[in-house]
Amino acid sequence: MGYDIERFVGYVNEGLLCSICRDVLEDPLQAPCEHAFCTACIHGWLVHHSNCPEDRQVIDVSLLRPLYRYMKNDLNRLQLHCRNRDYGCEMVCSLESIDRHERECEYSQIPCSNAGCTVQIERRNLDGHLAVCEYRSRECPNGCGYTILSAEDTQHNCVAELRTELELLRSEMICRVEEAKHEMESRLDSQRRHMVQKESILQNEIEELKSQMSRMMSDVRSLMAAERQHRQELEQAELEKREL
């Protein structure tokens, strides 16, 4: 749907009206036949039809294009009243800036931000309403630190609330202790497995060193025996030389 033409100040060119809703174009699109429509209007029309509502020429969603720039500029320059005019807003601004104004308008009806409250209030009066809203929250005046709603004042019990809070904290602490315990056990198991694996590797290395040392001792004994044999042969050769 377009902008209500009654909101506009002065004359509005016929070419800036939607061919379907007959209000001023909102988020406009243009067909190849140059008739313009609000995006929502033409999309709704094409669900049940396949032609232009003005001249019945065949059109498709894929054929729709943005409004010509000069028409878009004319549209944006139109002056209109804020939609909150009936609530007291006297602002008149261009169509191009109306959305920005209405998002911030002090006369806009907005919901109360307190959970459970269904009141719609003007933005300018929101602070005053929040100060007296029966659903407003505040800290307990008795010092327990609990946040309460005004509607719950008669049911609030500091001792009960603190006991509940204490139980929650105790449960949370037990859970954290259990988590820390499991984490420590997991780390110890991991370290234990690592140490066992390391011990096995070291044991294998020791056995290998022992084996190497045994082979070296055997080689040394063999060398010493060979040396004694060689010395005896030299001594025998020396005796034979003397006899000759």
TrEMBL record:
Coiled-coil regions listed in the entry: 192-243
GO molecular function: ligase activity; zinc ion binding
The TRAF-type domain, residue ranges: 101-144
Zinc finger (TRAF-type): 101-144
Pfam families: zf-C3HC4_2, zf-TRAF
Record-annotated RING-type domain positions: 18-56
UniProt keyword terms in alphabetical order: Coiled coil, Ligase, Metal-binding, Zinc, Zinc-finger
SMART domains found in the cross-reference section: RING
GO biological process: regulation of canonical NF-kappaB signal transduction
Protein known as: RNF41 ligase
Organism: Certhia brachydactyla
